[in-house]
Write a structure and sequence with these properties.
393 residues; alpha/beta; four-stranded parallel β-sheet; globular
């Protein structure tokens, strides 16, 4: 799955297994089929450092028509019951509020096990994804989703959000009393230190970039709710004011439209769309002079933290929890939501002041180190212990 939530769940599972816990993961597979018997597959990555302590069960799934590279699991109840009963978990932790999460919650209730729910999306994020023709349904749809979240919160023992800002917002909406635990960021992977002495040169050649011009980088899912169109428009204004080039990393339903807009705005010759990246992503962060995101739907912006960990100043919008990860004037700059000109002005300023940009990037790295993976694992272990101790009282 190509999503922030999937990557967070993977890091958590692997990290807990590395600490000696036995972890079962139930997630979407790459094909459809029956939900019992041979219809789903089990993988125990015995060759990994976690060995048999990590078991991954891949359930049959179908493509999500609204998200490139993502799949949906339908009716996972029978498989969930079989796997959890055989595994005998001490507790159940779900990162999905839909079909998989509901099946996990119902099965955990039957097993009388504590349940933890991590929220990776909020109702207004989902409403923001509605097609423009259905925009009049956004408000009632959001209201219904908040009702559902409040119901979900009553079914679990603890709700987690990745940031304090979102925890306070969820609590104010009556959806439990969440605890804030950072998703963390891979500090050893995303670092200012190049992997090889010629990393920058190699990447510029691989992606057809000018050997000397600074790079404005955007990383993320190219779907309507992430507002990559606004980030691209701001970057287009910036490169018309100061020589630079644009890299758009990621994939999504809006990619073709964004490529057309780059042509319409006259910046296609200096813009590169890379598609989804894995191995080259850390190097591209390091290659960038400045990172931009215009997304307003961030519970915890993994891309902003990755950029900060890589020593790159971030230009973002003042929305959601972004102010926790981009300290205005210290690690980057914030602009009002949907204010393309303000975003462009901040990009131009950082491109014109490379020494100042480097100082902001260094401060960003220090901020990212407060989100070390070990701290995230410590917090989860502590929460699990509290729930298990309360169960024994």
């Amino acid at each position: 799955m190509i999503s922030g939530a999937a990557l967070v769940a993977r890091r958590l599972a692997e990290g807990l297994a590395a600490r000696g816990h036995h972890v079962l993961v139930l997630a979407a597979g790459e094909r459809g089929g029956r939900l019992s018997g041979p219809g789903y597959t089990t993988v125990s990555p015995a060759s990994s450092p976690t060995g048999a302590r990590l078991k991954v069960v891949r359930l049959p799934s179908w493509p999500n028509p609204f998200r490139v590279g993502q799949r949906a699991v339908l009716f996972p109840g029978p498989a969930m019951q079989v796997e959890l009963r055989n595994f005998h978990p001490d507790l159940v932790h779900t990162h999905d509020p839909t079909s998989l999460g509901l099946a996990a919650i119902l099965t955990a209730h039957n097993l009388r096990r504590p349940i933890v729910l991590t929220l990776h999306q909020l109702p207004w994020f989902v409403a923001a994804s509605l097609p423009s023709g259905l925009s009049n349904l956004a408000r009632p749809f959001e209201s219904l989703l908040w009702d559902y979240y409040r119901w979900l919160a009553r079914q679990v023992q603890r709700v987690i959000t990745p940031s304090r800002t979102i925890a306070e917002l969820v609590a104010a909406r009556g959806a439990g009393r969440p605890v804030a635990i950072s998703n963390g960021v891979e500090l050893e992977r995303f670092t200012p230190t190049p992997a090889t002495p010629d990393e920058s040169e190699q990447l510029r050649q691989r992606y057809g970039l000018h050997p000397a011009l600074p790079v404005i980088l955007h990383v993320g899912r190219l779907d309507m709710d992430k507002r990559a169109d606004l980030a691209l428009q701001a970057a287009a204004l910036a490169v018309k004011a100061i020589p630079a080039q644009i890299v758009i990393a990621g994939d999504g339903t809006q990619r073709a439209a964004l490529e057309q807009r780059a042509a319409d705005w006259g910046v296609a010759p200096v813009t590169r769309f890379t598609g989804y990246l894995s191995n080259d992503l850390p190097g591209l962060y390091r290659l960038a002079s400045v990172f931009i995101t215009a997304s307003e739907v961030e519970i915890q912006s993994s891309v902003a933290l990755e950029a900060a960990a890589s020593g790159v100043p971030v230009v973002a919008v003042q929305a959601g929890s972004m102010a926790e990860y981009v300290i205005d004037g210290r690690t980057g700059y914030l602009a009002p939501p949907r204010d393309v000109r303000a975003l462009a002005e901040r990009l131009i300023y950082l491109l014109q002041q490379p020494e100042h940009a480097r100082k902001l990037g260094a401060a960003g790295r220090a901020l990212a180190e407060q989100h070390a993976p070990a701290l995230t694992l410590d917090a989860h272990e502590q929460l699990y212990r509290e729930l298990l101790e309360a169960r024994l009282v």
